[in-house]
Write a structure and sequence with these properties.
The complex is a heterotrimer of chains A (about 325), B (about 250) and C (about 100).
Chain A: H1 2-17, H2 29-48, H3 50-54, H4 63-88, H5 94-102, H6 120-140, H7 146-174, H8 178-197, H9 209-214, H10 222-240, E1 250-252, E2 257-259, H11 265-272, H12 279-316
Antiparallel strand pairs in A: 1-2
Helix pairs in contact in A: 2-4, 4-7, 6-7, 6-8, 6-10
Chain B: H1 3-26, H2 35-63, H3 69-74, H4 85-88, H5 94-115, H6 121-149, H7 153-166, H8 170-173, H9 178-185, H10 192-209, H11 232-240, H12 242-246
Helix pairs in contact in B: 1-2, 1-9, 2-6, 5-6, 5-7, 5-10, 6-7
Chain C: E1 10-16, E2 24-30, H1 34-45, E3 53-58, H2 70-74
Antiparallel strand pairs in C: 1-2, 1-3
Classes of the chains: A mainly alpha (about 325), B mainly alpha (about 250), C alpha+beta (about 100).
Amino acid sequence: MEDTVKQEDHFNEKLEKGDFIEPKDWMPEKYRKTLIRQISQHAHSEVVGMLPEGNWITRAPNLRRKAILLAKVQDEGGHGLYLYSAAETLGISREELLDQLHTGKAKYSSIFNYPTVTWADIGAIGWLVDGAAIMNQVMLQRTSFGPYSRAMIRICKEESFHQRQGYEIMVALSKGSAEQKQMAQDALNRWWWPTLMMFGPPDAISSNSADSIKWKIKRETNDELRQKFVDRTIAQVEYLGLTVPDPKLKWNEARGHYDFGEIDWAEFNSVVKGNGPCNRERLKARVGAHKNGEWVRDAATAYAKKQAAKAAGSLVA
Amino acid sequence: MNKQEALIDYCLRLGDNSLVLGHRLSEWCGHGPILEEDLALANIALDLLGQTRNLFTYAAAVEGKGRTEDDLAYTRNNYEFRNALLTEQANGDFAVTIARQLFYTSYAWLLFTELQKSKDETIAGIAAKALKETSYHLRHCNEWTIRLGDGTEESHRRMQDAVDSLWMYTDDIFAQTEGDALLIKEGIAADAATLKPKWDAMIKETLTKATLKMPEGGFMMKGSREGKHTEHLTYILGELQFLQRTYPGMEW
Amino acid sequence: MSNSNNEWPLWEVFVQTKSGMPHKHCGSVHAPDKEMALQNARDTYTRRNEGTNIWVVPAAAITASSPEDIGPFFDPSNDKAYRHPTFYTIPEGVKYI
């Protein structure tokens, strides 16, 4: 007992000093659990996030866009992989993590439960969804757990083109024909609110936020990041000549920030609970890929075992 | 067919091969058997797409009518496509995808090995770059063929089925046109007929290592060189060309 | 690390970014054997022209010092300033030393 207290003091001291926590360091069980939950949620989001954009790889409007989109969606897969690896350092296997996703025990970012119905959605996702994700991720580069921080540094470096390619698509559409411009506005209308929801519930009711801040897993609150995102994005919307679907959006001189309307948290909760437009499809696709891949993974394992046995045999001989 | 027409046709054919096969591989993105393999298949698809862009850009330049790589990819009809029938076959299970890779990539490796010596400098340059990429693709599909063939009973069966079912499209990869004869004489194109025995040997070696049987003879389907395709191609083009066909002439 | 099921083992990946540079740890991949580990590492960690050479090592084969070792392992070298060139005084005007 006394030991635990001493270890906890030492742990807190390290956090206080801004030192990183490494996998073998002592850590409170709740810190470990929070990290596993957050990192795996993040990993799942990357991997599920491949699906809505992946939809449009075969339909991209030209070869340049096709290459960019394929590289981008592939990056998401890579980022999922980095994050699963980071989570694995905490003593949980990827198989267990995937199992949690496939059985619905683990969550992923709800934004990916919305459909991509036009090409403009690919622009909107890159610009808004990746833009919002990047705000979170930039903060997470300084997160207190070493492997998570290192993964985030790599991810941020690679993601820097993701938002730009999305905005470039939106610029092309908003300068294009009336139909293209309408496509862009329609995408903004559908993605704006779900993007704001990505930052999570308001600080006042967020159950996980306080612990995460205390342990320096997160360094800015949901509301702070959300405000920062709105403040930064409005000028980009104006450049496109598009309108944000929020009549209450207004610059507040006194606060030095934009005021914006009430977020529909009922919708958010409903989608989180599984009742979004694409929840079932997304999960089905992931479960299907894993199941259909089982015989492939087993084959490679079997082959490796045979080879190892042969090598052992020839050593004996 | 004059030399210019023959060269355009040749570049389009090679570019169509990589475009259509790359399209198929990109369908795996997000659905692979394990995350690591998702990344691998996407890397190959990206290489193929790059090859297409180089070849189409050159074809358009040789043609000199101001068409672009996108005009060639997005506005030609199915009967104008010259990709090998093999490349348009559906992904099937992972074994089918790997067998398709093995058959195509072994050919591409032999082809680019020859073409890097082409008297046409642009072709030689494109081939030299593509050869490096293809060498890696070949390693990837060879290793997988061996693991699936010599893995479990199930994987062996699936892999043998895949090899058997795609075998009928393998002669078509090597089909030549009268234009080819012209280019071969000029030292621009590779003579596919000389590649075939080498291809047979490569495939045989890998299949043997993989404890798989090499199919022999049987019905061979052809037609890609005349633009006669299987049912799959129009579906592929339906997706590929959807936006350009629905909103012609737009910038994206 | 729990690895009770059929999951492919974990490999640590070290990439040399330029010839002459040391290999640096950059993450891990799952793979059934060393050849596939090499390929997976290549496909995962060198997508942006970052590499000239890759090492893959089974994660289980790595022996690491433990956090408790931090004192006995590393503190003793703390007071050996004479190992560093700045410890020494060289008369002004003396060159190439």
